[in-house]
Write a structure and sequence with these properties.
By secondary structure, the protein is an alpha/beta fold. 40% of the residues lie in helices and 15% in strands. The strands form three sheets. Strands 1-2-3-4-5-7-12-13 form an eight-stranded parallel β-barrel. Strands 6-8-11-10-9 form a five-stranded mixed beta sheet, covered by helices on one side. The protein has a two-stranded antiparallel ribbon with strand order 14-15. The longest helix has 25 residues. The mean pLDDT is 94. Bound molecules: 6-O-phosphono-beta-D-glucopyranose. 6-O-phosphono-beta-D-glucopyranose (BG6) binds next to loops. GO terms for molecular function: hydrolase activity, acting on glycosyl bonds.
Length: 467
């Protein structure tokens, strides 16, 4: 759609950046923290990367100082559930509770809006050992108890809450549910049961916030993207539609409308993965929907039909499935450049995603993650010249502005990530930050903070309030 006139960003637009507890904090066994399902074996780098993180636990004061210098209006971070309740439930850990008060208070003192994710992949290991974690319906109450504790403790200081980060990714990576030694296709029944419990738990937290904590707003953060058909063929078009349904549309439809899409239901049933639940769940979910949608966008995918070849239903690819025979396969899009990791660079895909989401759900949105990864050498004397990151971020911010100009309500944009953090699967080799941290996979060094060129670029952009 041609844009008549580019609209300015709203005055109160939340120019932000993001991180998560397990990727940033470190201090794995300090301050009374309990264990989560994320272990240091998760990264291919085979290091103790998550144990030390990038030391946010000890260096948050420095980091928030840098956020202030950059002029950030918002910082999205997650609370480590096991820092609050080391066993997932039971007695809260005063040191952990105090830590997040310090973080939130420092942010507020720097006029930076805290956007708090309650759960970003690091589920308490104890709950998995006790009753199977999300696989059991008992998990719903434990999540709500944890959320209620956070709201009672920090609710008067935090306006924006995010319940769960990238629930579909949790669902499709069994080890993040505490299921070990099984692939996605081997544990689908359990995964979609867990997925259902997460949706009910989120609806209960939406209800809690709407009834008891007026003045706060809540939503999920979902990984969202566009899927282009590889050719004009109807088969490829249907494959693209299917992959969008299987990775994101099913979840939004369930979370925002309390409805399992019939085609998705058909898919689950044909894989013997339809979850058990009382009918009343769907009415409850429908009556308790989010206030906004957090959108994590990095790239788009292109999809072709994949014939069954007699191996109907074989699912493969890492870390999340990239093909399923008889349904779809992801293919390379020759029109689009990629990062070193083969992720397409597609700013227009962000605009399309925001348009599609608004068309379907009519909710305000915030871009909760968007960022560019690269292997980078950190030197103490010279800021990293990350021109490719600047171009990526600028083009995506422009795409958000175009969406706003078309009338789509987007109230913020958070770069992933503020400092470099430990990448989920590639450790410190894959850096996203606008501030470098001088550790590597194998050498912790002093973990000093060194702003990259993109830091100064973002500072100027925020100052102008425009791209
Ligand atoms: C999102 C997650 O999926 O993508 C982040 O919410 C993650 O936790 C980010 O780090 C980038 O993924 P990766 O694997 O490149 O670090």
């Amino acid at each position: 759609m041609q844009i008549r006139q580019i609209a300015p960003f709203p005055q109160d637009f939340l120019w932000g950046a993001s991180s998560s507890s397990f990727q940033a904090e470190g201090a794995w066994h300090e301050g009374g923290k309990g264990d989560s399902v994320i272990s240091h074996t998760e990264t291919e780098a085979q290091t103790t990367a998550f144990d030390e993180g990038v030391d946010f636990y000890h260096q948050y004061h420095t980091d928030i100082g840098l956020m202030k210098e950059a002029g950030l209006k918002a910082f999205r971070f997650s609370i480590a559930w096991t820092r609050i309740f080391p066993q997932g439930v039971g007695k809260p850990n005063p040191e952990g509770v105090a830590f997040y008060h310090h973080v939130i208070d420092e942010l507020s003192a720097a006029s930076i809006e805290p956007i708090v994710t309650m759960y970003h992949f690091d589920y308490p290991q104890h709950l998995v050992d006790k009753y199977g974690g999300w696989l059991s319906r008992r998990s719903i109450n434990d999540f709500v108890t944890y959320a209620k504790f956070l709201l009672d403790e920090y609710g008067d200081k935090v306006h924006y809450w995010i319940t769960i980060n990238e629930q579909d990714h949790i669902t499709k990576m069994p080890y993040r549910l505490g299921i070990l030694g099984k692939t996605y296709s081997e544990s689908m029944r359990e995964e979609y049961q867990a997925n259902h419990h997460m949706v009910v738990a989120s609806a209960k937290v939406f209800n809690l916030i709407h009834t008891k904590y007026p003045g706060t707003e809540v939503g999920p953060a979902l990984s969202y993207q566009v899927y282009y058909p590889a050719t004009h063929s109807p088969e490829d078009t249907e494959a693209a539609m299917d992959l969008s349904l299987l990775t994101q549309d099913y979840l939004l439809e369930l979370q925002c409308s309390g409805r399992y899409d019939p085609v998705f239901r058909h898919y689950l049933e044909s894989h013997n993965a339809w979850p058990d639940f009382p009918d009343s769940d769907l009415d409850y979910i429908k009556a308790n929907s989010p206030d906004f949608i957090g959108v994590n966008y990095y790239s788009s995918d292109t999809v072709a039909y994949m014939p069954a070849n007699g191996d109907d239903g074989e699912i493969g690819g890492k870390p999340v499935p990239s093909y399923e025979r008889g349904i779809y396969q992801k293919v390379r899009n020759k029109e689009l450049p990629t990062t070193q990791w083969g992720w397409t660079i597609d700013p227009r895909g962000l605009k399309l995603s925001l348009r599609k989401l608004y068309y379907e759900y009519h909710l305000p949105m915030i871009v909760t993650e968007n960022g560019f990864s690269e292997e980078e050498e950190v030197s103490p004397n010279k800021p990293i010249d990350d021109t490719k990151r600047i171009a990526y971020l600028g083009d995506h911010i422009r795409a958000v502005q175009e969406a706003i100009s078309l009338g789509i309500p987007v109230f913020g944009y958070c770069i992933w990530s503020f400092t470099d953090v430990i990448s989920g699967h590639s450790g410190m080799n894959k850096r996203y930050g606008i501030v470098a941290v001088n550790r590597t996979n194998f050498d912790l060094k002093a973990m000093n903070r060194l702003p990259k060129k993109s830091f100064y670029w973002y500072q100027q952009l925020i100052k102008k309030g425009a791209y």
